[in-house]
Amino acid sequence: MKETHPGNILVRAPNWIGDAVMGTPALMDLRKAYPSANITLWARPAVAELLKGHPSINEILVYDYRGKHGGMFGKAALIQTLRKGNFELAILFQNAFEAAILTLLAGIAERVGYATDGRKWLLSKSIEAPIKKGAVHLVQYYQGLICDITGIQTDRIPNLVVEKEDQERIDQRFPELVMTDGDYLIGVNPGSIYGTAKRWLPERFAEAADRLVKKFQEDLLPGKKIRSVLVGSQGEESLGQYIAECMKERPIVLSGKTTLRDLMGIIKRCSIFLTNDTGPMHIANAFNVPLAAVFGPTDPDDTAPYNNRQALVRTSVNCAPCFLRHCPIDHRCMTGVSVQQVYQVALTQYEATLALREQVGLN
């Protein structure tokens, strides 16, 4: 594989937003290895939207698994689309059996992925995955796959692209978010599509955000315009409204109102981002936004903000990580995280980022 230089490559992206962000260093490694190749990303709609315009890829094939690619006939149509792509190499970031069987049926000769989900026999080259969960961070997990194919190994961090048209659309849709020189925005992401077990207490999100707004207004940036914005997915509108009602400093509430591209642009504007362990956490980290990231049932060795474990906020409990979507007991991994912890981590992250920017002359 290392001696070949395929000109037409298909990459099956991970399904989750956070995983897809963590896969961007591997995509950049692939682009470095094959600078003239045509690289097509095969991705579900949300991930396709996330990685629109990313410099590592040329095209995106949207996997409409709930629409035209659903069911037996939809899969047959997808196989025909893949076959017409004349791909020489398929790289499967996604670990599922389905990705392997579809690329095999599409006649793609080289199919490379980790030997997971019983699919080893379907791959032209299978790579043994790390045995112990948490043995490597997901960024390194995806980069390891590309390294095995290309021999390229780098120390990249996740990166995303927000285009000018995205920022212009945000200004038009949400005029309350128009930023002028000296404006500061504190982002709050209190939800989690994964399940309630990942969610820190809403009242504590409200208090932490209030304390940060007050700190900025009275000590750090007196006289400047300091606002907070609540973001979240569709279905989390009531959560956003409840937190807004708990806050003394009225936030901008955008829970359930944004597209993913809107969300990316809004996060990029934030000076601090308070969040659970979710896709938006990884988006913020990719944009180098100072973070306070609350972890409970998941394992930070797998999915912590890459190269920024100082952003973690967690408490040590003997039942974590459990990876459950809903806590069957008393949610101690979250109730044990205090407002002071989150507030202090956020403030420390902001001050460290500010110092670094001053050091390199960005302020």
Give structural notes.
The strands form two sheets. The chain has a six-stranded parallel sheet with strand order 3-2-1-4-5-6, sandwiched between helices. The protein is globular and about 65 Å long. It is built from 14 helices and twelve strands. It is an alpha/beta fold and 363 residues long. The model has no long low-confidence stretch (mean pLDDT 93). Helix content is 40%, strand content 14%. The termini are far apart. It folds into two domains: 8-150, 3-Layer(aba) Sandwich (Rossmann fold); 167-359, Rossmann fold, CATH 3.40.50.
**Contiguous runs where pLDDT drops below 50 for at least 5 residues:** none
Order of helices and strands: EHHEHEHEHEEHHEHEHEHEHEHEHH
Structural class estimated from helices and strands = alpha/beta
- CATH topology call of the largest domain: Rossmann fold
N-to-C span: 46 Å
The average pLDDT value, as a whole number, equals: 93
Helix amount: 25-40%
The profile of the biggest β sheet is: 6 strands, parallel
Number of helices: 14
CATH architecture of the largest domain: 3-Layer(aba) Sandwich
Adjacency order of strands in the biggest sheet: 3-2-1-4-5-6
Outline type: globular
How many beta strands in the DSSP annotation? 12
The domain tally reads 2
CATH class of the largest domain: Alpha Beta
The CATH H-level superfamily of the largest domain is Glycogen Phosphorylase B
Strand fraction: 5-15%
The value of Rg in angstroms is 21 Å
Question: What structural keywords apply?
Answer:
Rossmann fold, 12 strands, 14% strand, globular, 2 domains, 6-stranded parallel β-sheet, 363 residues, alpha/beta
